[in-house]
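Hi team,

Filling in the usual template for the complex we talked about on Friday. All components are listed, including any nucleic acid strands or ligand strings, so the model treats them as one assembly.

SUBMITTER: L.P.
PURPOSE: interface mapping
COMPONENTS: three
RESIDUES: 862
SEQUENCES:
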Amino acid sequence: MKFTFGKLMLGIAVVLTTLGLLRYKPWKKNSGVTARDVIHEGVNKKATRELTVGYLPVTCHLTCPVTDFASKTTQTNTNFNSRVFSDFPTVVSALEAKQVQATFMIVPLAMKLREQGVPVKICYLGHRDGSEVIVGKNSRIRSLKDLKGKKMAIPSLYSNQNFVIHKMMDDFGMQPNDIEFIILPPPDMPTSLAAGAIDAYFVGEPFCAKAELDGYGKVLYYARDIWPNFISCALVVHEDLIKQNPDVVQDLVRGIAASGAWAETHRVEAAKLVSPYFRQDEKVLNYVLTSDPKRVSYVQLTPTDEDLQQIEYQGIKLKLLSKKIPMYELIDRKFVPNEIIPAPIDEASIPNILPAGKK
Amino acid sequence: MSDKKTVSLALSNVSHSYGTTSVLQTLNLQVKNGEVVVLVGPSGCGKTTILNLLSGHLQPSTGRVQRTGNIRTVYQHDGLFPWLTVEENIAMGLRSVSDTAQREKEKQDLVELIHLRGFENHYPHQLSGGMRQRVELARALAGQSDILLMDEPFSALDYQTRLRMRLELVRILEQRPRTVVFVTHDIEEAAQLADRVLVLSSRPATVCRELEILTPRPRDLTGSTVIETMKTILMELGLQH
Amino acid sequence: MINSKHTSSSQKKLQILLPVLVLAGVILLWIIITYTNLFPAYALPTPGAVLKSFKEEFESGRLMNDIIASLWRVAVGFVLSATLGIPAGLWLGQHLYARQACVPMLNFFRFLSPLAWIPFAILWFHIGDKPAVFLIFMATFFPLALATMSAVATIPSIYFKVAKDYNYKGIELLTKVTFPSILPQIITALRVSYGIAWVVIVAAEMVGCQDGLGYGIWDARNGLRLDSAVCYMIVIGVLGMGIDRLLAQLTKLPNVRWGYER
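RESULT (copied from the run log):
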């Protein structure tokens, strides 16, 4: 075979077309959804509308995939596709580009977005509690005071964990620079603790349970002990969607609330349902959800002015937020249903997934 | 092929210089139709410059170059396109032949002429130096060519191959006569091939001796004509007394 | 003659056998390390777990989807930078002043790691295929343009003299003389910049993407699944090597062979 310009062009065209076809699968109707998005196919044929909702694989966002599952297997009007993200900057970018119009997000970050002029509203909460301060299993740290001069990892400056720990240091009469804070991606925290690179970390589940299960970490504080009814994440919706499609948002909030109510009482099943969405070991999730009811709760998820004002106040005090946003601008409670009925998920419809590849 | 009568090649009062270095000084050169003119001279005397002027790759600083007919150059080495096969390189010379069948026939004839049947699909880097020069010659002879400029075409070859190539060139020119301007520093070559030898002085080059050789080719290397001619050239170059 | 043929065939066998032995050795070492618990299980997954996760990822269709996503992004970015970079290089190679004017700028961008563009890639192209394609483009355009340029600038002038003798002009001169004479160097440049592209895609997909091999690693990490991350690493390495072998086949084509045998 000889190398000619024509053959080269032909070769390139063939490769590009093949890859393009494989990538976008034009013969499939639902071409925007990739294999990563579809975890379960369901029987619900009633749904006429669709909405993609963003989430991260943390238990705080657990109701998102549950709602996805419920919308596929039960009779709902809207089909919800949950779309997994791996970090918050990407979520923000997707929200700004309106690639997703509803997503779960850490609360202070939503406030920051609002401050920067991205019209988002908090419509519901993810869960209560669900975060812990973890220290090494054999460490001598007994209280926050023992962490003086030590290193502690937090997930983001705009995380409520950061806000809360500073509030607590205040309460203990400590100076802000008494503890050296390090921002780490949550998945790195357990391993960093094991390797001795940090002395403690404060983050959402299941990254706390991981350290406990692997046998090198223990809980120093539960979030609820520091800050009752601790809030980490909220359901954030773009105002455009609220204006254009209030019915869908109504469905969404009702669905999330119903999923929360279901998860609260079906914890084992919830762990099983969510593990393939999160691509996490069911055992870890199961542990988070069932070991101690103090860890997480999925009730009482209507955002109150008081809750968020407290967070905002702390954010301004830390100079991470710069202006006070009135609560009516930030919160939209009109979609929260008066009566929350647990989602009618049939436990038998949750497929059995191979236990993840850990011993 | 164009009418042989119209072929002419001449330099009149041509001078050329690169920057301040004068290479040629008022040079006059007339090449007759069908004649083989060999230019001999010390290296660096401007022989290649003369060829570049004749072919039009260079414009003279002063003076006039007259040229009618199609000119092709055979280079010392690497003149073949390495990405083309023997056949394709030869076909380059036949680009103006529009009839496919005729082109094909001509190509076959040329391959036959240079005795490279069986090597049509070889690439230059797979051939020996002598074979490559034969291909280059065939390419230059193909199609519409009237004048061949040969720039030390055999100087990169070993001695025996060089001797053989001279005989080849004589044979090929017999079959396809061309007007040839041949540049070399090899006086044997000059004595064996030329109808007329021009001995050039060192830079700036001027013609210091013109020798006509009437003995028909092929000429025996040890024959008296060649020996005599060589003697004359050597004396002219100051290498023999 | 016979003797030398014999050695060449046994040499060939050795050529295959030795790498296989090294590979087997590395795997064995891995098995030994994991089973003697030299590292804790959370720090180094066992080969068994990796194999299992490979099966899992493959059966769920995720792995295939990620492979296609990455290949698509690399292909589009690469073709884009080749279609712009090679002509740019051709033009620069033929114009001395343009070359002198642009080379410092091109070099500046070449030494700027494409990953430095990540914030802008996401800002300008949001998430999805586009930022990754953009990063691949930024990673490969400059080396390709520069390599083409220096290849053109060093084409022996004799080729152009010959081309003039045989009446090659304009576009024909470009496609029949200039382009084939630099083709061997272009193929080499393509191989080198493909290598860069493949390294960059993995890093690029860790942000601003929802699928792809790099995202697979990131996602596995988020899911605390190092076994799956290792499985993706293996796929990335094998694919990268395989495609390079494929590109290497281009150098075996007869009309570019000359460029590698001198």
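MY TAKE: The radius of gyration of chain B is 18 Å. The longest strand of chain B covers residues 8-18.

Thanks, L.
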